[in-house]
Amino acid sequence: MKTAGDILSALFDEGFVKKAQGYSKFFDSWTDITAKNGIAAAAGHSHIKDLDRGIVLVEMDHPGWKQIIQTKQSKLLNDFRRRFPELDISGISLMLGSASAPGGRQSESQSAAETETTEKPVAQTAQTYEPPQEQPSGAESASQGEPVTRGYGAVKDEDFREKLIKLGQTIADREQSSK
Q1: Sequence-ordered list of residues with C-beta below 8 angstroms from that of 92, at least 6 positions apart, any chain
Q2: What span, in angstroms and rounded, lies between the C-alpha atoms of 162 and 122?
Q3: Phi, psi dihedrals of residue 114, rounded to the nearest 5°
């Protein structure tokens, strides 16, 4: 009876194994390459997503990180070419994604932190939300001579509420004058 190692050895020759190890080193090199080029923090918000026809696809989680990486793009490309000449790397393409972990997966700590931050505001909003009262159209309110103030009870910031009311009145006045 053959062992699993014997079967795998028969399936994969030594050249294939070396090539696979080279790709593994390539994908794992992102943290080191960003650190060497002075943008170590970018590695926590980006990763190598793929290598397609000599183009390194780098995915990041925010446009700000894309801009930072773009400033070092030519240095990063030169570093990739020096380290991995066998891959014939000809360029780097930057793209926005939803997660920074390899393969688009989030780590458990990222997922827990996001769940925690999104659950709190939702719970607070549910407790303080007041449904808006029916609001007459701007024309009705303006024609009756009373300010448009209904439906803003859910807005707790007094200054912001006043600005919304003024905006509503301006829109109602413009609608009335255009008739």
Answers
A1: 55, 56, 58, 73, 76, 77, 80
A2: 25
A3: -70, -40
- First-to-last alpha carbon distance for the chain, in angstroms, is 91
Total Cβ atoms within 10 A of residue 46? 26
> What pLDDT is recorded for position 161?
76
On the CB side of 1, CA atoms within 13 Å amount to 2
SS3 92: strand
**Domain limits of the chain?**
10-104, 129-179
What is the per-residue pLDDT for 10?
Answer: 66
pTM for the model stands at 0.50
User: Which helix (DSSP H) or strand (DSSP E) does residue 79 occupy?
Assistant: helix 73-83
Q: Under CATH, what is the fold of the domain 10-104?
A: GMP Synthetase; Chain A, domain 3 (3.30.300)
